[in-house]
Specification:
This protein has about 100 residues and is of the alpha+beta class. It has a four-stranded antiparallel beta sheet. Strands 2-3 form a two-stranded antiparallel ribbon. A hairpin with a 2-residue loop joins strand 2 and strand 3. It is globular.
């Protein structure tokens, strides 16, 4: 299995929404994608909003588990994920990621 972790820092305002509103929008879109069952091999999805609010903090983390690296690659190019990713690019100011075997 592959664990895919992504963390984002969001802009204070973007696309007509506040940071908190965009956090909720992105979380809702990602949860809906997971719940749709459209992503083959996506076994789990967990989202968390930062509560520490330090200079080093990111605003949100996404933790997903996939059956294989091929499933992760398919997720990254899935049309429904691409739409979400394009929105996130407009509202984030930083992103970091790591993928590893579990």
């Amino acid at each position: 299995m592959i664990r895919h972790i992504v963390m984002w820092k969001f802009a204070d305002e973007a696309e007509g929404h506040t940071r908190e509103e965009n956090l909720d929008i992105v979380a809702g879109k990602l949860k809906a994608l997971y719940e749709s069952g459209k992503i083959e091999g996506l076994r789990s999805l967990e989202l968390g909003k930062d509560i520490g609010r330090t200079e080093m903090s990111y605003d949100m983390v996404l933790i997903t588990d996939f059956d294989s690296f091929d499933c992760l690659r398919a997720y990254k190019i899935h049309p429904d994920h691409v739409v979400i990713s394009q929105y996130v690019k407009k509202v984030r100011v930083a992103r970091t990621t790591v993928d590893f075997e579990i």
